[in-house]
Design brief:
single chain, alpha/beta, 7-stranded mixed sheet, 6-stranded mixed sheet, 19% strand, disordered N terminus
């Protein structure tokens, strides 16, 4: 049994196809320059998940090659995986674009971020340490950090490669074994990285990739009594289901990174050109398909009209088209379901009285492309101001005072990210500390580094990923107390 168990989808090393042709046995990927059509794949059964979990459990047995491996050697394996991803960077970036629709230059950036994440956690492998504790009495007491065990990981379709790295790297660093389910819309790079795990030399059963649908493969992982932890990135709705499944089964450890409706606050004293360009990026990056997108843009009253004017001008310049073209900024939405949801919310904005400044329609005559869209005169109770659109739709709201905008920014069920633009350090710190969100950016947006934690407040999630904090999600702390004849300091 290999290190990676492909349940019906063995990968190969052929270049991603520029036209219709088989890519992996069992399904076909169809692509044209302006139209993405989803691949067809066999649906894994409960038995396939059971096989993957069984392989992971076998690899996690006491005294197994994986459990008995030196921590520094685990780090070497993870670094080897990073080397292989870097070796095949162009291939993987193109594969990600074919599968997801994001511009290939953005996919190339995702490859680089993934490599850095694996290398960061490779360096942590032999630096995870417990403590000695001077408890009362004649005892020697210490703690040790142990792997949780078999970890189920369910990743989304918006950043497939990066999310796989965020999940797998810390889990492997801590010595866990993995059963990972990629999103049914975007399984290709996950499968390819799985093949690279085998090439890197991970022992059999350590990494298992199970493509499939959420209600089948995802539910089976969440409910499985031999899975010790589940980590999920995706919608808040599905996060509820995973928590329920964990509670009904074996009370497994759960980490969730869920939805957001992040406030992006622009004060009148901000550098306006910088604020406009960064706010554009904060919303439109990755076709607007970001959980932490700056999707509620609050602008101080005195500069509101000028900010709207410049934002509309920038949105109209955004180039939409073939994501394999080097100058394209925006590709298609991931699939027809997402396209329809976005168009429905755009219609709701029109009906509820927001002013459509630009966009609001399909781009072109085919495919799931949407015009960059900007709404002004948006009110807090409108659907486009409350619901996560997950598309290229910017909502610009007006405010007057610091206290008002803090209150409105916090008036949401979400708390994933936020930002503030101002030259006043006191104002920046006041907002940064008052807004309830897991990440707060000042005069910038979407700053992600593998050594800084990320996660949400409220219904945006449970736990943190990345950095040293991310290791805590994949370790158990054991306290050991030993009776000694006589204790000495």
């Amino acid at each position: 049994m290999g290190a990676v168990q492909f349940r019906g989808f063995p990968g190969n090393r052929e270049p991603p196809p520029p036209c219709t042709r088989p890519c992996y046995p069992g399904f076909t990927l169809l692509f044209s320059c302006r139209l993405f059509v989803r691949h067809r794949a066999a649906v894994p059964r409960q038995a396939d998940v059971d096989l993957a979990v069984k392989a992971a459990r076998e690899a996690f047995k006491l005294d197994s090659p994986w459990r008995s491996m030196d921590a520094s050697d685990r780090g070497l394996l993870i670094n080897k995986l990073a080397d292989l991803i870097e070796r095949d960077a162009d291939y993987i970036a193109r594969l990600e674009t074919l599968d997801n629709g994001k511009p290939v230059k953005d996919a190339a950036g995702d490859v680089g971020l993934s490599v850095k994440c694996y290398r960061y956690y490779a360096g942590w492998c032999d630096k995870i340490q417990g403590k000695t504790i001077p408890i009362d009495g004649d005892f020697f007491c210490y703690t040790r950090h142990e792997p949780i065990g078999v970890v189920g990981q369910i990743i989304p379709w918006n950043f497939p490669l990066v999310m796989q790295a965020w999940k797998m790297a810390p889990a492997l660093c801590c010595g866990n074994t993995i059963v990972l389910k990629p999103a049914e819309q975007t399984p290709l790079t996950a499968l390819y990285v799985g093949a690279l795990c085998k090439e890197a030399g991970f022992p059999p059963g350590v990494v298992n990739i199970v493509p499939g649908y959420g209600p089948t493969a995802g539910a089976a992982i969440s409910e499985h009594r031999d899975v010790d932890k589940v980590a999920f990135t995706g919608s808040t709705e599905v996060g509820h289901l995973i928590m329920q499944a964990a509670g009904k089964s074996n009370l497994k450890n759960v980490t969730l990174e869920l939805g957001g409706k992040s406030p992006n606050i622009i004060f009148a004293d901000a550098d306006l050109d910088h604020a406009v360009e960064t706010s554009h990026f904060a919303l439109f990056f990755n076709q607007g398909q970001c959980c932490c997108a700056g999707s509620r843009t609050f602008v101080e009253e005195s500069i509101y009209d000028e900010f709207v004017r410049r934002s509309v001008e920038r949105a109209r310049k955004r180039k939409v088209g073939d994501p394999l073209a080097s100058d394209v900024e925006q590709g298609p939405q991931v699939d027809g379901e997402q396209f329809s949801k976005i168009m429905s919310l755009i219609d709701s904005g029109k009906q509820e009285g927001a002013k459509l400044e630009c966009g609001g329609e399909r781009h072109g005559n085919e495919g799931f492309f949407i015009q960059p869209t900007v709404f002004s005169n948006v009110e807090d109770d409108m659907r486009i101001a409350k619901e996560e659109i997950f598309g290229p739709v910017m909502q610009i709201l007006k405010f007057k005072t610091v206290e008002e905008v803090i209150e409105r920014a916090n008036k949401t069920q979400y708390g994933l990210a936020a930002s503030v633009f101002t030259k006043d350090i006191d104002k920046a710190l006041r907002v940064a500390h008052a807004v309830r969100a897991g990440s707060m950016w000042v005069n910038t947006y979407d700053v992600f580094r593998c050594n800084a934690p990320f996660g949400g407040y409220k219904m945006s999630g449970v736990g943190r990923e990345l950095g040293e904090y991310g290791l805590q999600q994949y370790s158990e702390i054991k306290t050991v107390a030993i009776k000694v004849t006589k204790k000495n300091s």
